[in-house]
Design goal:
transmembrane transporter activity, 179 residues, TRAP_DctQ, 5 helices, mainly alpha
Length: 179
């Protein structure tokens, strides 16, 4: 179980770092948005590339922030059923939901969105707007974001199995209790 928990900790570390990047991207998107609006109204100048940059930052922090949100257990869930279950029942529901729905869905969406990126990359797709940005880099965010979410799902599955086997969290790490 220890090697799997080490893998889980590595995935958690990666998604924690991605979450930090996403937090800074929210700030950057606000600054770009405010600066773009001020320049547009003060100087009558606007640039499609700045608008698209805002959209790109939003796409990145949504797609990469999903795995961070899942790691923090801050995702949307139907609490009516979940809260009526025992702790063990909640672990089982999390485990089954993640294994049967989250991971397969993420992998399928990543697989289906990969050709979308590859086609854009192959032709060097750029925005049709004047002064727009390259499109293919942001299209890569979709499959990669789903892979990160699936990886966090794997981490959560490992942690749920560890909890069901009696491991407890000590300093953010799962350890077998001494008896």
């Amino acid at each position: 179980m220890r090697p799997l928990l080490a893998l889980s900790n590595s995935i958690d570390w990666l998604n924690e770092k991605l979450g930090g990047v996403c937090n800074w991207l929210v700030l950057a998107a606000c600054v770009v948005s405010a600066a773009n609006a001020m320049i547009r109204y003060a100087f009558g100048y606007s640039s499609n590339s700045w608008l698209e940059l805002q959209w790109y930052m939003f796409a990145i922090f949504v797609m990469f922030g999903a795995s961070y949100t899942f790691k923090k257990n801050e995702h949307v869930r139907v609490e009516i059923l979940y809260l009526t279950l025992s702790e063990r029942g909640q672990l089982w529901l999390d485990l089954i939901g993640t294994l049967c729905f989250l991971i397969p869905s993420c992998l399928l969406l990543s697989y289906l969105s990969w050709p979308f990126f590859m086609q854009a990359y192959a032709v060097g797709e750029t925005s049709s707007n004047a002064g727009g940005l390259l499109r293919w880099p942001i299209k890569l965010v979709v499959p990669v974001g789903f892979v990160f979410l699936a990886l966090q799902g794997v981490s959560e599955v490992i942690k749920r199995i560890a909890a069901l086997k009696g491991y407890v969290v000590i300093d953010a790490k799962y350890e077998r209790p001494t008896q």
